[in-house]
Structures are given as structure tokens and as C-alpha cells.
Amino acid sequence: MHLSDLEIYFTLFSCIVLFVSFAIFGLYLFKRNIKNIKESTIEKQLMKTQFEQQLLQAQLEIQEQTLKTISEEIHDNVGQVLSLAKLNLNTFENDSTKKLEDTKELISKAINDLRNLSRSMHGDRIAEMGLLQSLTDEVQILQNSGEFETHLLVSGESYKLSIQKEIIIFRIVQEALNNIIKHAKAKNIILHINYQPQIFTLIIEDDGIGFETITQQNKNGIGLKSMQNRAQLIGASCTLQSVNTNGTTITITLPTLANKT
Question: Tens-of-pLDDT digits for all 261 residues of the chain?
Fold first, then answer.
């Protein structure tokens, strides 16, 4: 009888120890889970903050680059057109009818160019007009400069992405075009936008001196890393293909599942 009581006590003690052990282990798992949730929340909040900072930076860069482009356009294109119109007005004595018609055409061109520039100055132009129209205006400004032959090719049925993605993509294109202008010595620039239900692709091509030569001339290269980092922010990829003296192709690829507005 005495031995049986010891066995009961031992069994009861073992159950208590086992229960307490499970309780402690469960409490440990609970605390670790709470810690993981907190760390995950903090990490997500940090990522969100970083994305918002990058988005703001991209918007500021777009505005800065746009203002620079507008300044150059007014000086090199609109100013020249108006100077020719003024010259025609100052020499009306001979063949005044033809000069009047030429002057009207020049002034019409200046007005149209200024209208395009005015649209470009709109701070929220990407949100208002969308990526496609914004890129159309950007390419047209390059064409008006007389330095480049530009083409914008669109395939597929166009759709809008979220405004954040369109801002980032526009800034990547703007950065690529700026590098072409500065370093590529290109004559032809082609933008090809391909709208597919599952994927959005944008290709920037030029016939300039190529990436290797650009890298030698500019230690910072073409800014490919910056463009790739921006692309990663929105779940896209940005790749570059180039052969020395045979131009450069930059491809932006963005899966569109759950990305359309």
C-alpha cells in the first residue's frame, strides 16, 4: 500500500512537471511569436517609409530634370523660332506676303511648343495625363530639339498602372534619356511600350557609341544601378544590353498582376 502511494505521488509530480514545462514552452513560443510580429511590422513600416522617400526623391528629380529640359527648350528652340519671326517682321519690304505666311507658321510653331512645355511643367502631369501621354510629350520635346530622330511605338491595348509605379517608370526613362543625351552621341532614339495582360514592357533604344565607351568616359557609368534599384522598388526589372559603338537597349519589365489601378 505504501509503495502504491509513492507511485501515485511520483506520477502526479511528473504530470505537474510536464504541465509546467509545456506551459513554459508555450509561453516562450507565444513571446517569440509576438516578437517576430513586432519585428515584421517594424520591417514593413521601414520598407514603406523607404519606398515613400524614394518615391518623393523620384518626383523631385522629375521636376528638376523637367525644368532643365524646359529651360534648354526655350533657349534652343522656342527662342530661335521667335527670333526668325522677328527677323521676318523686320524685312517685310520685299515679298511681304510670303514673309507674312512664314511668320505665321513660325509663331504657330512657337505657340505649340510653349503649350507642350506648359503641359510638361504641370507638377502632377503623370497623375493627370498618365504615363503614356507623359512619355509622348517627353519624346516630342527631344524631337523638337532637332538633335535627335525619335519614335514612340506602342503595342497592345494601353492601361494605367498605379501612380507610384508610373512615376518610378517615368523617372527611369527620364534618367535613361538624359544619359543618352549626355554620353551616347546618338542620332536615333526609340521607345517601345508593350502592353500585355500579364506584363508591361518598356524598351529604350539608341544608336550611340554603346555602354563600354560610355563607362570609360563617365566613371559613374550610365546610372544603371540607380535605375535597377528604382525598378526593384515596384517589383520590376531593368536590364541593359549594349555592344561598343552599336548602341544601347534598356528594358524595363513589370508583371502587371494586381498592379493595375
Answer: 455 666 766 677 778 878 777 778 777 777 777 877 777 777 777 777 777 777 767 776 776 667 666 666 665 566 666 766 666 666 666 556 776 777 777 777 777 777 666 665 554 677 788 899 889 988 888 887 778 899 999 999 999 999 889 988 998 998 899 888 888 889 999 999 999 999 999 999 999 988 664 554 454 455 778 888 889 889 999 998 887 778 899 999 999 864 444
For residues 141 and 73, the answer to whether their CB atoms sit within 8 Å is: yes
Domains in the chain, start-ordered, CATH in brackets? Answer: 131-261 (3.30.565.10)
CA dihedral 44, 169, 239, 47 (to 10 degrees): -10
Q: Which residue has the cell 511681304?
A: 96
